Amino acid sequence: MSAPQERVGLIGIGSMGWPMAARLVQAGFSVTVFDAVPGQAAKFAQEVGGQAAVTCAELAAQSDIIFTMLPTSAIVEQVLNGEQGVLAGLRPDSVVVDMSSGVPAHTQRLAQAVAAAGGVMVDAPVSGGVPRARTGELAIMYGGPAATLERVRPALSSMGTSITAVGEVGSAHAMKALNNLVSAGGFLIGVEAMLIGQQFGLDPNVIVDVLNASTGMNNSTQKKFKQFVLSRQFNSGFGLDLMVKDLGIALGIATDTGTPTPFASLCRELWASAGKTLGKGQDHTAVARLSEQLAGVELGAKPKD
Ligand code: NAD
């Protein structure tokens, strides 16, 4: 197979961006990386490959396709429009692919700015977390023109195994927020079920096994409870603040569309409370600690005699 022709850049070499950029390098792309943390891009280039850029403008000047994997839409805007930002170095006909989890309306505004600068912006957020980013098996949602998808498909295919086009630019960010709403609800209800069961006298590990063989199974019962909660590791690699952000986006869309969502609102409220109660820098799986505090027990702890 011949080497990919398009030169790619990836901005945001964090928990997700690092393994995603590594997949692009492994697929044979010429990859330029940038991160706000000094030395992070150079570390990537040294350990994995590719080139480190000193500014986003420099990265853009060296890339045909520019991926962003950043915490929020506000930061994506800063990276695009700021001094020495992507738009300052954008080449004609370049594509900006925002793979962060973002705010649909914000992304649509940014897409207009990119179009005015001669490029195209699309959104392609992901699901699957750090483990599937490492193996290149992410689920990718795509919002934007069909022709642009065909252009970016080879690069996306090195990072994900499923690519679903869901509509115009911004629509994939809406879809991603809704996915995480479902995921966040499944996590919390599962934790409460384990707490009830443990108080009744059931072993939480057995509860997880039975859920996984039954209709109560979900991604959290399969991939999070034993691994990160019952193990007390709380280190999935997806921050609690990022999940709270996603729930805010989902509820914002509910407000914008006039959709009554009492269940989803309570879910967001609980996750946001955990963010405030547990403090900064927590993994999202640590939200279980809020439910434990409310119940006055710790999952997996032996009952007091
Ligand atoms: P992270 O905090 O680990 O990484 C973000 C990176 O962006 C960091 O390296 C940070 O230094 C860099 N950064 C921040 N501001 C910057 C700026 N102005 N210029 C350049 N770089 C900057 O976050 P993450 O977990 O990798 O998540 C990134 C995005 O992916 C978020 O939108 C998140 O919601 C989404 N996401 C995360 C996961 C996950 O499991 N971690 C899964 C799916 C989607």
TrEMBL record:
It comes from the Bacteria. The active site is at residue 176. Its EC number is 1.1.1.291. GO terms for molecular function: 2-hydroxymethylglutarate dehydrogenase activity; NAD binding; NADP binding. Coiled coil: none annotated. Residues 170-290 form the 3-hydroxyisobutyrate dehydrogenase-like NAD-binding domain. Keywords: NAD, Oxidoreductase. Residues 7-167 form the 6-phosphogluconate dehydrogenase NADP-binding domain. The keyword Transmembrane helix does not apply. The keyword Chaperone does not apply. It is an enzyme of class 1 (oxidoreductase). This is 2-(Hydroxymethyl)glutarate dehydrogenase. The gene is Hgd_5.
